[in-house]
Structures are given as C-alpha cells and as structure tokens.
C-alpha cells in the first residue's frame, strides 16, 4: 500500500503543520477533563462520554489520555479541514502481438498492480483501512493528469519499458503502459475520545516473568491476559531535523514495561503499533515523560530516574538507558521534561530541578552525555502533587494541600527555574451535553458515512460512582471497551497488589508473583469469560421488554455472542450494529458482577424484573465468592462501592444479592452538599505562554472576579450617570476653554550627511480640553556644522515603521513623508523599548489627528511587511478626517510680526494642485523683494521658483537655482505692484508650470525646471511686510504616495479583506485569524476597544546555508575559490551569515529549538542534508553525480513571538492560503475560500459582517493538491493554482451557488504559476519567477480564456479588485536613489488597446511582502 501525503510540499514550513491550539488541560477528582484557553478565563469541560480519566498528555494537535479502565485514549482536535490520505496503486500492462496490451507481464516485470517504482505489489484488494477510525470517501477511480497534462478517459501513460519516463501519447515503440488508481480515506474520529488498540490487539503479547508452564498453558495465558497501561506521555515535534508533525508517544504498563506507539504523525494520529523498549534488569518503570525535543525520562519502582540516550531523527526511540541517582536519597515519584529543563517530584512531594541540561548545537554530532543527563538536582520551594512542563519550558503544577493548579512565573531562557508559583483560580464553565435520545447527524457536505456511536461502558469504580449522575451521551464514532479488559486488569492488580500495599512492597519486582496464585486467577478468568463477555453501557432502553420475549432473546443473543469475538477497542459500528449490540448488552446485563455498575437505576430495575435471570443470579454469587477468595481487598472495595451507590435499587428486585435488606426510615439531607472539586492532573503541552506576556487568568490582570465586584460596578454606573447629566447635553457647543498642549521630549540619533548624528526630539501635541489631539508636530534638532532643525507635522507623516537590526543592535523608527515616499527619515534609538515608545507616541498622535479611532471601513487596502507587521489604509474618508483635511489643506501659516526675512515649512510639499498666497505691504521706498519656493530652509537650498520684483528696473525676474547655480532669467513686466501698496501674490502649482496671480488677476507663468516634489519651504525676503500667508495643499486630492497607513498589532503572513469588511489572516505557522474590529495590540497601545485585542503567537524559521567545494585531495571541504560564496551564507550566497551571528528579530522573540540540518529543503537532500550541483549557483539536486563539484545544505532554527493584536484565532483549522470574496452571495454571506496544509480546497459558509468567522467548512474536492485560490461570486472569478503550477477554473459559480460545480484545468504559461487573482473579468497570473501575465479572451461564455499574455517581471504578489484594478508587490523597483525591494504599486494605463498596462504607480514604504485590495476602492 502506498500512501500519498499531500501536505509534503517540499518545504519545512508547510510540511507538518499544526492546527491552532493554546490550551491547558486538567483532570479533576471525578475523572473529567477540562480545558483552559489562553484567550479565555473559564474552564471548559470536554464532553463526557462515560469514561473517567486518570492522566492526560497534550500536544498542539492531539490529547493522549489514560482512562480509568487503564486503556489509552486519543482525542484529535476536530480539524475543520479533514485528515485525508490518498491511497494509490499503479496498474501495469505490456503489449504482445496476440492480445495487444494485457496484464500478462514478463517474469522480470513488475506486478500487475504495484507501487510507483514497481518494487512492491499493491493489488486493490490488499489495500484496506488501517483502523476503524478511518472511512473511505469514495471508491477507486482513475487519476486523469500526468505532469500537468490531462489524460484521456482511460488515463494510460506509455513508455518503452519498465521503468522509463512515461508520456501521455502512445508511440510506435510504446511496449508498456500504466495508469494510476487513487482512493481517499479520511480520519473520522475527530473531536471525540477514541480508544487506541491495546497491546494484545497489536500482537505484542506478554508473559509474566517467572512463568514456567506447558505450551497449552502459555497459549491460555496469551489469550486471556491483557496488559493495562498505568502512564502515557506525548512529546516530540521539535526533534532536530525531524518533521514537525511526527509525535512521540511513550507509555508504561502495569508490568513496568515501556511501550512506544510507532507511526504517530499528522496523517496517522493514532499511530500504527506498540513497540516494546527493554529496560535494564530489575528496573521496571512506573511513569515516563517525553519532551518536545525528544528527551525521554522515566521513574523506576525503586524511585530512580532512567534517561533514554541516543534519541535522534534517525533513531527516535533512542539507543540506551542511563540510571540516575535519587536527589538526596528521596525516591522519585514523577518527572516532567521540557526542551532545556527537567523537573522532578519525590514521594515526599518535594520539587527538584535538574541543572546542567543543554542542547547540542550540532545535531549531526549527537548530544553529549552531560547535556542529556545534567549535573545535579536543585531543591525548589513548594510542595506539589504533580508537575508538568510545556512549550518554552513553562512549568505547571498542582498544589499539595489545596489541589489548585499553579503556573510558574518568570520562567525564561535565561532563568529556567522561574521565580514564584501563581495559582489559577477560574470558574468552571457548564457543559452542554448532547441529547441522549439521538445521535448527531454527520455533515452532508463531508464524507457520507453511517451514523456511528461511541459506547463507553462504565467499568471502573470511579466510573460506576458517576454513572448515575451522568446522562447518556452520543458522539460520532463507536468506541467500546473490551469486557475482558476489566477482569484481566483485576488479575494484574491482584497479583501485583497495587492497591493498599506499603512502600517495601512497591520495591518488589513483578516477577516475584507466585505462579500458583496467578494460575488460580487465570482459571477464574476463564470460568467467568462467557459471563463477562459483554458489558452493559449507558444506553439501555427506557422500557423493559416483555418477559417471554426477553427469555427467548436472551438465549439467542447469548448463543450468537459466544460464537463471535467481542468488539475490540476503537471499533466502529454502524447504526444497525449498534442496535443489535445494544439489545445484546441489555439482555446480558444480568451476567455482570454486582460491582460493575454500568447502567443507571432504570437499567437495573428493568433487568431485575426479568424472570429469566433469577437462576443466573445464584450462579453469580458462587462466581463472586471465588473472586473474593482470590482477592479479598479488591472484593471488599467493590462491595463497599455497591452499598454506597446504587445497591439499594439493585437489592430491591434481584435475588441472591450480596447486600442485606433492611427497612430504613427516610433520611433527608438538611442541606444539599456539593461535591468538592479537586484537580488531580494538569498538562500544558499545547499551551504557548511567555513570562512577560501571561494570559489574563489572574485577578490582578482583570479577571471576571474583579470586573464583577460590586464596588467597581457602582463606580462605573455613577460615572456613566454623570456623563449623561453633565457632559452629553453640551457636546454640541463650542468649548470656551482653549486647547492645551503637551510635549514629549527625548534623545536619539538622526541620519544626516551620510552619518548618524546626536539629536533631540520634541513631539508637541495640541489638544482640546478632553485631550483630543488637534495638531501635532515632531521637531528634530541636531548639529552638523551648525545647528539644524527638521519639522514634521502629523498630517504629513504617512506611515511609521519600526525596524530592528539585531546583528547591529539598532532600533530605528522610520518616518515616511509624501515628498520621499521610498526614502524615510530615520530615528535611531539605543534601546528597543525606547524606540517602541516613540513609535506608539507618533502613531497615536497621527491617528487621533485624523480621527482614526475605530475599525477601518470595508473600502480598505491591507498590507503586510516582511517583518510580519500589519498596516491598513482606509480609502473611505470619514467626517473627522474630512474636517482634519480641510483644516490642514487651507491654513494660515504663522508669520509673527510680519518682518522679513521669513522662512516657513510647507509640510505637505508643493505638488500640482497646491497653491500659496502671500499678502502684505510693499515698503514705501522699496527697491526689491523676492519670494522663493525651495527645497530646504538653508541658504544653499535648491530653488524651484524665484519671484523677484525690481522696482528700479520696472520689471520682475523669474528664475531657479540648482546646486548653487542660477538658471536662465525670465523677465516679466510689473502689474499692480508698486512701492507703498498692498498686494496679494498667489502661486499655483500646475502639472507643467507655476501660475502666478497678483490681486486675483493672472500675471505670468514659469515652467518647471526642478521636480516640484522637492519643494518644502517658502522664503520671503526684502522690503516687504507680511500680513498673512495662506497655504493650501488640495484636500481630498490624494495620490498613492499620500496614503496614510495605520499600523495594527499582531504578526502575520498575509491578510485578506473582502465584502462587508470581513477580513481574514494567516500567520507564518499557518494559523487562521479573523479581524475583531479593534485598533490596538502589539506595539500600539491605548486602543478604545482593548477587549477585542487578543493574545497571539507566531513561529518563524531562521535559515543559514553551509557551502562546500570538492577537490581531488580532501574531497568536499570548506576551501573554495576566491570567487565562491561564503562558507556560511544566506540563500543567495552574497551575504555572510553564520549560526552564531544570527540573532532573534527583536526582544519579543524567543528561540524554541537549536540549530539543526533541514531535511526538507526544496529540491530534496541526501541522508546528511546536502544538495549537489556542478557549480555555484546552479540547480541543485539530492544525489551526487560525477560532475558535481559543489554542495550545500540548509540549517534551520525556530523562534516564536508572543504578542497581541485585533485578531481572533480560529480553532481547528490550518491553512496555507485564504481568499475572501469582494462581493456577497445571494444570501448576503461572504464566500471565503482556503487551501489546507494538505492541498485541499475548502469553502467557509455562513460568513457575514457580524459573524466573520462563519459557521462551517465544506470540502471542495479536487483531483490534485492546490497551493492558492482566489474567491469570487463571478462565473469567471474562482481560480486556483495546483502544486504543479497549473491553473484551475471553478465552473458554475454564481451568487446563488458560490461553491460552483466542477474544476477545469487551464494550462500554465512557460513557467509554473504560483498565484491567480481575478476581478471584473480580468484574470492575472504570477509564475514562480516573478513574471506577470494576463489571461486573454476571458468571457462569460468562455471563462477559461485562450492564452496568457506577458506583462512584466519582478512581481512578488498580486491582488485584483472587483473593479479590475491590479495591485502588486514589486520585488524590485528603480527609485531615484537606486533599486528598492518590496514596493506596493498599482498598474496604470490598462485599456482595451493596452491589455496589460504600461507602468506602475507606487505607494509609500518598502519591504512589503503582501497586499490585499479586492474591494472596489472609492478613489
């Protein structure tokens, strides 16, 4: 059988994706499992299905648990994107002259049905489901594509011989052919507990040590003995070099054996089989813990620690055990293993920390002994019942006295021991139990399987105790516990005396159990096997059948059941099977032991009324007497349980009962006492938290307990009442008190004269009495030869960005101005915290000035930088912004006393559409004066316009000055200008010239000689007294370089906006988020709706390339040619980058792994991770050939950021691409399409503006895995790109049917495509080399078009609006000061005659990686 794992895209950040989860799981004293999410403040109970749990161990995608029946269960988070695996086999045929092509092959040929390489036979009949937790989606069918080309209906590919390259066309020398059959299977046991097959079901049988018997007795022991588990732990996912979805599950059985569940990964969540890992002699294990990096530590019966060494990517189960001594002679009870830390509890509840643990820097060399074992134990403060370690080495625990859950504060990479314990005291959420009368119906959009039910029999004392309190529940799958498990577990516990023995007995080896006593129990087990074959579950009918029918059915069911085997754990049965089993269980309930209370009181009464069970009750007493003889303590405990729970109901109608009947008076409780809730176990294996960014779980951080305090509620209500009475009635009046101003000052370094110079900062904000910013100015003062000053009004600051250079330890705040949209002004700070503060100050002032305090409108453009920062530009103009623009567009500049010379800043520049008016009086004896529009306030500035009236010559001179050299003078006659007169001179900037008017009459014009974008100041000199200067920059007339980009919190890979303001996002670890409409988070503080700012995290991979060249003497070595790339470099080889010099991006990041070889490098690698080529740089391949003279390999290290932002995490889904439709469907929902990690196309239904997360996912089947998709409701609008670079059009899409009907293949251009975006019938494509294309002749009747037309190169990302406008991120762009990268631009001059446009108009900023502008913009 050949598995095709579609999610292996050849990249590490795509393979092994995890579904989003950040939760803590805990088990209480009733065996119920609760979860606590990092963005909530309440415990939520997982659905109770009849099985109590002792321990749980969690990872991001799954929970493994130990049930009260000592069986292992797994809970896979119900991914909205299904877990699907494609089974495939190849049908092979050879041509012969008689029959033509037939299945008669040569003896040396491959099998008629085989794997792709032909080495393994794979007939269709031999391919079956691995476990009953899987279901087939469809029957076998042919795969009709080959290397991107469509095949005919028979799907054959031809070749000369086996094995050769195959083609779709049959040639004259095609002697063999083959075709591929595929069938998808789906994992259906999601969002529910599923039993993992026990050891005996994996054919891993065990005999107790010291057993000497005949072959018959051995077979008898094997058939009846089943080995229960006593501990389970899940880890892995961060083993150096291994896949992120490969988990490590280790367990311990009651005999002290260590077992490993093999094959646990993203496509097989329950694993394949149990593998026994031998332990040293006389070192049986009681508990085990697995860390995320592969560390495995265990505790033995005598209280020592066992450490598994040699755990690597190639040997995941390790090679050897090393025994560690106890800490100060105290016997160990439990261990908790992290990535860089190990914690331990001794039997006296003391807590210990293992010192000296380090992680090897080179995974290829293996870990040394000291790094795996540590050096010594350190006693910590506190007494605990258990301890657990999660990601980032965060520590959890349960207190000894109050059984409360604790979290260790202050745990960081530099301080792994943390500081103090903090209790998590939060309310318990109620669980909405499903209706027990019916089973939920599967989603018809998903796989069509029969309704299935998990049956959870209550088989333990704890479960029996809760049976009467818990209603019957139904879930999607069937899970039954083998009834023999209870009795075999009793046998083990009887002989090992696990209950009630002292510490000296704990030290005895399991081999000391006597053969005779155990043999007696085996005999008892066999004697009772038929009576205990079928356990009663909680789904007994409400009414008992008639006596006559019950007797006959009882005999029939008993005979049928004795001829067949009991259903194994995890078995899936259909509705009819459940009904039959349900009846058998109801009829055979009389054969249970009195201690096995599996049903409720009604079940017991219905059974006791039956006359056919009276005689069997007497036989049951004799059987139980035998059991009591074997284990008196166990039987007494069971009897005490019966008498204390439901014994009264059973005794009233059942003969031969062990309970003595008495007549008791009614006993009523004076006060209803609630059962005490105690925490018994906790796991944080899937919870990502940081010491400096803890969740809001504590009272001091605004938990519900503080918010709901009466005093707080009273104060808030009084403030609201006062607001309504004193403030709100007068909100429409103009304020009588003048606005106040405040100044924030600081120090930085300013980039001037090609160097960093010391500078002082002053941010002056002018606000109203209510602290609303009405204007703000940033002043930078520095000295460079002389004292200089730069001024920036908040209305001219278009974007503020924080750039961290960790290698040089520099924190830079970049300020973008319309005059230089691609060259920002930069402020360098000595510390990240100081830079973050100034970023927040400046951005807050700009936002308040523009009135941008609420969520952006639906008409917004979203952008993401390569650093993961999110920005948004709102293209709709709000009333506040219009008012601010009006004030800023036409304002009076401060002229003081009016004396000249005077130099004033034009904060918005002086581009076409701007004008300035200078009014004043010419002196009586004036000789001349002049007005300059120049590039700076210095005397050596470039002058774009020089207006110089000279009264002695009765003429005016117009000129310009560039680099200190005056241009050619232009003379104009004087009009309405004379000494002693008042005048008003207006200068308007037009597209080609300046137009000058005097006293509202046109005077003259002057053609542009210098770029008007350089103008920043106006200067008035000479015999002139200024009355006023009016400056107008044209409100509402915005160019792309004048767009204001507002920063939002969070760290994301891409953001997609759509109709109604619905906005979705994907992080670098492919978690999916929806926008919450807030405006703060992360570096941006002071949001008005902080309640919608959520905690979030993201993961990135840092890469370093190792390069070598071959020489005849030493082979491959680091010595290369002088022209070669660096030994350690980036992917281009031009920049030197070593592992030691690679730093974290900022202080908010934390390393989560060590450097290791990346075995998922695109193009493939050999066993050591190398790629080979003939020279640098060429195409690389995984196998070395004779002509290969160079090689390289990639090293990877993961880091994680913990931040916050207005983004709500969507659980149970992991997508690599998402697209939101720019238009609504007919039912006013917004279609959202996505591509899962395995390449599945999914459709989110029920998405609206008020409910942006939608309702459910629907799978859109496709014949090959996809990589990107474009959403729309247009018949030409939904396109997808497959993994092999082909385009696919979805036919039948309309507003009434947004999901469409079927996919149609569209060939790619010369290179494979990576993205397609559409709008208004325009279909644009982007290939893997950055070439941009547009599809020709796309018509409603022919939506696939005819061919691709080339447009341009150097494009990294595209987004097409519903209006057809094309937006893109340019990989490189030629600016005035050289080539810049990552520029957002809009395609210009697209017309019918120029199909692909001619050029680009760019916006502000560089370093962009993604843009989304799907909604038509009101430009």
Structure characterization notes:
The chain is mostly beta strands. The chain contains 16 helices and 85 strands. The strands form 17 sheets. Strands 1, 8, 9, 10, 11, 12, 15 and 16 form an eight-stranded antiparallel sheet that branches. A hairpin with a 5-residue loop joins strand 29 and strand 30. Helix 6 packs antiparallel against helix 10 and helix 10 (614-630) crosses helix 11. The radius of gyration is 38 Å and the shape is globular. 43% of the residues are buried.
Q: Could you list some keywords that capture this structure?
A:
1419 residues; mainly beta; 8-stranded antiparallel sheet; 7-stranded antiparallel sheet; 85 strands; globular; disordered N terminus
The overall average pLDDT, rounded, is 77
| SSE-based structural type | mainly beta
Q: How does the major sheet shape up? A: 8 strands, antiparallel
Using only CA atoms, what is the Rg?
38 Å
Number of helical stretches of at least 4 residues: 16
The tally of beta strands, per DSSP, is 85
Shape designation: globular
Strand content: 35-45%
Helix content: 10-25%
State the end-to-end distance: 58 Å
Runs in which pLDDT lies below 50 for 5 or more consecutive residues are 1-20, 203-225, 360-367, 432-670, 699-707
Structure, briefly:
The chain contains 16 helices and 85 strands.
Detail the topology: elements first, then pairings.
Layout: E1 2-4, E2 23-28, E3 33-37, E4 44-45, E5 53-58, E6 62-67, E7 72-76, E8 84-96, E9 100-102, E10 113-114, E11 134-136, E12 141-142, E13 145-146, E14 149-150, E15 157-159, E16 176-187, E17 193-195, H1 215-224, E18 229-236, E19 247-253, E20 258-262, E21 273-277, E22 285-290, E23 296-300, E24 305-309, E25 320-324, E26 332-337, E27 342-346, E28 350-355, H2 369-373, E29 376-389, E30 395-399, E31 405-409, E32 420-424, H3 461-467, H4 484-496, H5 503-506, H6 515-528, H7 547-562, H8 575-587, H9 601-608, H10 614-630, H11 632-644, H12 647-651, E33 679-686, H13 704-707, H14 710-727, E34 740-752, E35 755-767, E36 773-783, E37 787-793, E38 799-805, E39 810-817, E40 820-829, H15 832-850, E41 860-865, E42 870-874, H16 879-889, E43 890-893, E44 902-905, E45 915-922, E46 929-934, E47 943-950, E48 955-962, E49 965-966, E50 970-973, E51 982-989, E52 993-998, E53 1001-1007, E54 1017-1022, E55 1024-1032, E56 1046-1048, E57 1054-1057, E58 1063-1066, E59 1071-1075, E60 1094-1111, E61 1115-1117, E62 1128-1129, E63 1149-1151, E64 1156-1157, ...
Antiparallel strand pairs: 1-8, 2-3, 2-33, 3-4, 5-6, 6-7, 7-17, 8-9, 8-10, 8-16, 11-16, 12-16, 13-14, 15-16, 18-19, 19-20, 20-21, 22-23, 23-24, 24-25, 26-27, 27-28, 28-29, 29-30, 30-31, 31-32, 34-35, 34-40, 35-36, 36-37, 38-39, 39-40, 41-42, 41-85, 42-56, 43-55, 44-54, 45-51, 45-55, 46-47, ...
Helix pairs in contact: 4-6, 6-10, 10-11
